[in-house]
Amino acid sequence: MSPRPLILALCMALCAVTAVAQQGEMERIVAVVGNDIILKSDVDGQIEVLAQRNPKVNKTDEALRKQVLDMLINERLIVAKAIEDSVSVGDDEISQRMDMQIQQLVQQFGSESRIEQLYGMSMARIKREFRDEIRKQLLAARMREMKFGATAASRSDVETFYARYRDSMPPVPARLDLYHIVRYIKATDEQKKETYQRSLSIRDSIVKGLATFADMARKYSQDPISAAAGGDLGPIEKGKLVPSFETAGYALQPNEISRPVESPFGYHIIQLIDKTLTSLNCRHILLKVGQSEDDKQRTKEYLLDLKRRVTDGANFEDLAREFSEEKETQGFGGAMGQLEASRLPEDMRAIVMDLKDGGVSDPLPYAADPTKPGYHIIWRKRATAEHAPTLESDYKLIEQMAAYDKRQRLELEWLQQLRKTLYWEYRN
Question: Which pTM value belongs to this model?
Answer without folding.
Answer: 0.61
